[in-house]
Amino acid sequence: MATTNISMFILPIVLLIWVSPAVVSDKCSPHEKKALLQIKQELGNPAMLSSWNASTDCCTWDTFRIECSNTKPYHVSQLDLHGLDLPGPTKIPPSIFNLVDLDELFLFEMPNLTGPIPPQISNLKKLTILYIFSTSVSGPIPESLAQIKTLFSINLSGNNLSGTLPPSLSSLPTISVIFLDSNQISGPIPESYGSFVSKNLVTLALSHNKLSGKIPASLKGLNVDLLDLSWNKLEGDGSVLFGAEKKTEDIRLAGNMFSFDIGKVEFGRNISRLNLKHNRIYGQLPQGLTKLQHLTRLNVSYNQLCGPIPQGGRLQGYFPIDASSFSHNKCLCDPPLPPCK
C-alpha cells in the first residue's frame, strides 16, 4: 500500500518534468525559431547571441533581447539586437522580415551594421516601434515604411541615410515620434508635413542633415511638442512655425538661413526652449517673450536683431539665459547687454 502511495505521488512529478519542456517549447513556433537562427547566422554568429540554439525554446534564449507574447497564439513580439559585436560590415538581416508578428524592433549602436533599410520592412505589418540608430546604415528612407500603419515611434537618427524625406510618412495614422536627425538627408521638407494624419504627433526631429529650400507655408499646421530643424540649409519665413495657439514646448531652428521679423511672432505659452541662433532673423524682440513662464533656454545670437531687449520675465538673470544668448546681432541693447544709447 505504501509503495502504491509513493508511486502515485512520484508519477505526476515525473510526468511534469517530462512534459514541461514540450509545453514550454510550444511557445516558440518552428517558423520563428528558424528565422531567428538565420538572423544569427546572417549577423556572423556574434558571441552575444551564443544562447540562441536549436535545442531550446527561443522565448527563453535571452529575455533581454527577445520577448514573446503572453497569450496564445504565442509569437516573438520584441527583437532587440542593439550593441552587438558584429565581426565585420554586415547588412540588416533579411530574415528579420520573416518575423511578421513583431511589435518592436531595435537595431542600434552597431557601427558595423551597413547597407540600406530594405523595402521588405513593410512585411512587419504590426510594428509599433522601429529604432535603427547609431549605425552605418545608408541609402534612402524606404517609402514602404508608410505601409506599416501601426507605427507609433520611428528613430533613424545617427546613420548615413541619404535621399529625400518621404512625403508618405505624414500618412501614418498613429505616429507620435519621428527622429531622423544626424543623417545626410537632402532636399526640401515635404508640403505634407504640415498636415500629418495622426493627431498624436509630438516630436519631429530633422536636425543635422542637408535639408534645403524654402520652408513650406503648410507647416503652419504643424503642432508638436518638440520641433528640431536645426543645422540644415533651410530658408524662408520660419515664423509659420510659431503661433499663440500652438502647444510647442521646444523649438530649435539654429544654423539655417531663416529670415523673418521676430517682432511679429506670437509665441505659444508652453515654450520652454527656443534656439534661433545663426539665422537671418531681424526686427525687435517682442514683449511677449517676457510672458513665457516656462522658458529655461533661449538663444537668438548671430542674427540681425535690433533695439532694446524686453525687460522682465526670464530674459534676465535666469541662467543660462545671459549675454551670450543675445550676442552678435545688429544692434540689440539693454540688460544683459550694454544699455541702449
Describe the structure.
- The radius of gyration is 27 Å and the shape is elongated.
- 11% of the residues lie in helices and 22% in strands.
- Strand 1 (66-68) and strand 2 form a beta hairpin.
- The strands form five sheets. Strands 1-2-4-6-8-10-12-14-16-18-20 form an eleven-stranded mixed sheet, with no helix packed on it. Strands 11-13-15-17 form a four-stranded parallel sheet, with no helix packed on it.
- It has a domain at 261-341: Leucine-rich repeat, LRR (right-handed beta-alpha superhelix) (Alpha-Beta Horseshoe).
- By secondary structure, it is α/β, with parallel strands linked by helices.
- The chain has two helices and 22 strands.
Descriptors:
Leu-rich_rpt; eleven-stranded mixed beta sheet; signal; 341 residues; four-stranded parallel beta sheet; alpha/beta; Leucine-rich repeat-containing N-terminal plant-type domain-containing protein; 11% helix; leucine-rich repeat; Leucine-rich repeat, LRR (right-handed beta-alpha superhelix); LRR_N_plant-typ
Short description:
The protein has helices spanning 2-25, 30-42, and strands at 66-68, 76-80, 90-91, 104-110, 113-114, 129-135, 138-140, 153-155, 160-162, 177-179, 186-187, 203-205, 210-214, 226-228, 233-236, 250-252, 257-258, 273-275, 282-283, 297-299, 304-308, 331-333.
Q: Count up the helices.
A: 2
Secondary-structure element string: HHEEEEEEEEEEEEEEEEEEEEEE
Distance separating the two termini? 110 Å
Q: What is the C-alpha radius of gyration, as a whole number of Å?
A: 27 Å
Q: Write the CATH homologous superfamily of the domain at 261-341.
A: Ribonuclease Inhibitor
Give the CATH architecture of the domain at 261-341.
Answer: Alpha-Beta Horseshoe
List segments where confidence is low: pLDDT < 50 over at least 5 consecutive residues: 6-25
Count of extended strands: 22
Largest sheet: 11 strands, mixed
